[in-house]
Structures are given as C-alpha cells and as structure tokens.
Specification:
By secondary structure, the chain is an alpha/beta fold. The chain folds into 2 domains: about 290 residues, FAD/NAD(P)-binding domain (3-Layer(bba) Sandwich), CATH 3.50.50; about 190 residues, FAD/NAD(P)-binding domain, CATH 3.50.50. It has 14 helices and 22 strands. The strands form 6 sheets. Strands 1, 2, 3, 4, 5, 6, 19 and 20 form an 8-stranded mixed beta sheet that branches. A 5-stranded parallel beta sheet has the order 8-17-9-10-13, with no helix packed on it. A 3-stranded antiparallel beta sheet has the order 14-15-16, with no helix packed on it. Helix 1 packs across helix 11 and helix 5 crosses helix 6. It is globular, with a radius of gyration of 24 Å. The C terminus is likely disordered.
Length: about 500
Amino acid sequence: MDEERRSVRVAIIGAGFAGLGMAIRLKQEGEHDFVVLERADSVGGTWRDNSYPGCAVDVQSHLYSFSFAPNPDWSHLFSPQQEIWDYQQRLVREHGLESHLRLGHEVLGGEWDADAARWRLQTSAGPVEAAFLVSGMGPLSNPIPPDIPGLESFAGTCFHSARWEHEHPIAGRRVAVIGTGSSAAQFVPAIAPEVERLVLFQRTPGWIIPRFNRRITRLERLLYRRFPAVQRAVRKKQMVQREGMGLVLKSPVRAKLIEAVCRARLKQQVPDPVLREKLTPTYRAGCKRIIVADDWYPALGRPNVDVVTDAITEVVPEGVRTADGTVHAVDTLILGTGFEIMPVADPLRGRDGVPLAERWAGGREAYLGTAVAGYPNYFMLVGPNTGTGHTSVLLYAEAQIEYVLQCLAHVARTGARSIEVREERQRAYSAGLREQLDGTVWLEGGCRSWYLDAGGGSSVLWPGTTFAFTKLLAQLDPADYVLDEAPAREPVAA
C-alpha cells in the first residue's frame, strides 16, 4: 500500500461477506476512495476459514448471496463451502475490488482524531487513516478452544473445526469430537464413515430440522440466467417461508409445534431408545440455534460412533477423561466449540479515548446495530442485535449497508466533517430491544446458549422480523445524529 493510499475516505475492516458487500455498493454509488483491510491473505472470512468436511450453508443459497449480485449458478439449494467461497472471489473480480483490497492488514487498533476528523488506524502492515470506518469483521470470526484442564497435554493431533488440518488423515483414526453445534452436525456425518471410532462428547443435544437439500437442475439455472426475475421470485418465496418459521420459533408456546415435528423425526431415524433419550433436548426449540441437517441422526447411530453425555473432567495425553472415571483413548481431538461472539478492533478508541471493548464491558449495544455513540464516522455491519436464528444474516447486512450509504451521503450533502448517533437515542433503542426480547424463547426457553449475555438478556439477536429491520433502516432520520460542522474559513484579506 503506497503512502498516498494510506489516507482514504472510507476504510472497511474485513473482506468477508459484509466487507465485500459494502465495497461493492460503494463502487456502485460512484465512491472509489476506499480500502478493505483484511488480516488474512485472501478474501472470504468465515467461508475461507471454515473448510472442514461437509461444510455448507444452512440457509438457502439464494438467500445467502447479495440481492445486488445474484448468482444464477448455485448447484444446490444449500451450497457447499467451496462454492460460496468461489462466489465471494468472483465478486471481487466482477466488481473490480482487487485494487481496493489490502490483504495482510490486520487492524490492531485505532483512535478518533477529533481535530482532523479522521480515524487513525494501526495495522500489521503500517498506519492507515480514513474519514469513515466501517467494520465488517463478522460476529463469529475468532474460534475459541474449550476451557478444559489438560488440553495442552494431549499427545495426538488437536485442532478446532475452523482451523481444520487437512494434511492430517482422518481415515482409520480414533477421533474425539467436543461440541454438538452446527459445525459438528456437518463434519461428523462426513467423517464418521471413514474413522475407526468416533466419540462425540455432548453437553446438550440440539433440536434438528431437515435440510431437504437437492441439486438445482440445469433447467432452473438456465431460467435464472435468462430471466433474473424468476430467481428474485424464488428468493422472495424462501425469505417469506423463513420469516414464518421465525415467528413460530420466537414464542415458547408456538415453538412446541416445531418440537413435535422434530421429535417425530428423531423417533423415525433413531430406533435405539437409549440413544434417542440422549438426543432429546429438554429445552424449547429455538432457545439455542436450531441445527439444519439430514444426516446427523443416522451418523450418530453408526456402530463405530459413541455419544457420551458424561461431563469431561480433563484431557490426558492418551485421550479424554469423563466424570465416571473413563478415559476415552483417541489419537485425534476435534474441537467444535464455537467462536468469540462479536469481536471488536481492540483497542479502537472513540471520541473520549475509551476502547470499544471497555465501553461494551457492561453489554454490547449499537443504534440499529450499526452506529455507536461516542464513535463518530464509525459504522458496524452485523453488529449487536442483528443476529438471526431463522434466516440469512446477509439480509440484515444488506439493510445496514444501504443505511451506511445514506449516512455518508448525508454528511457529504451537509458539508459536515462527522456524524455520530445521539447517546440518548441509542439508549432508548436498546431499551426497546430489551422489552421486545422479554418473554421470547431465547430468554425463556430454558437453555444456555451463545445468544445470551453474561449479565442476562441478549445483544446478539434481533427480536422482530427481517421485514421490520429492513423497514427501520430504510430511511435515515437526521434527528438521530449529531453533525460536526466544518470550521468556517478565515476571511481572505483584500
């Protein structure tokens, strides 16, 4: 990155879906003075990092792509990881983003310079400054290992599913898997037929709904290429169907309808009553993220697969010890233990010099999940309370991208130097979210999940419909913000 390009109008953090979408829309709106700062050596974010066997999207491919950059050539209703990553890389080529990418530029921190009205960032490849900063870091980008005594003593091969070691052969191995979330539900069925033995350590069973995946026919793909309106109609139909499921899941009472379907499927696919009892959740469906899978139950019923529900007490060199004293001897340990929720560029310091991580120590909040009081000219994509348990998060990111464009246009139109959300408006918005979340299945469903904050409540999930979120961000209200007007110029002497 040459010196003259170290100062730009807009800096975007992250080259995953959110960052790429923001970059594309900036170019479409005629803005070319921007860079995308990415810590890795290629774009893709989650879909670059997660390459485990069986990795695929768990919402329909048409929804898990941008409406302003449709892909008529998806091979499946739920496409595999490589295809999604290919789509992201094609977006870079088709929209001419190569010259804007700054790969190997991890953002280590940043400060708001009030005098210059600019963000001064420190990256692993040197300083960068920008008038506006957009974070597209992603809410689930940093994998976390479990806090289990002795984990570092394991003598075999150990890795997190998001850092899959492809050079390590799985075939014929004795494998232990810790975690039963969405990632494990994809890679366990993929590797179970190959391993000698697989021990799955389950703390809490998940509710499973069928994926009903299938290939998209050649005729369908032809129609989508020739008549884009057909693909838009299919996408809209899928979106409405997903919203219907979301409305059912939101209520602890209505969630019982989905539970009945899940229980019937569990009984059909797991004839062993002992195993079926282990796999039956005791909390309301939707309280934790529902797993979308067709082959999870059949995989767990294989003769070479054991589901262990005894608590893990420690990892020893030869395997995993459980509370009953058993040491489960394995040579490979795979951690499907999730991610750090909503990381921030720390220490990213705002107007008062306070790091964002410190400001959020008592709870994450952002106005419309996008703007943070005390942080002028700073916007987040997929920020607090923009998560969804039923549909594509890209629908929320798109609404935010359009909202950020409105903010940038408003600053340009008024001639202001900066725009910052009013703290009282942010507080009122957050209070309203808390009220809407009360009584929902996420808070009242009887489970522990990454949806919940340590102090109670949730700063992850949006409590309403996707349509409501999109409508809320459709029109910028200037009264929500404070503008820092540019200082008047001194009169020139005659």
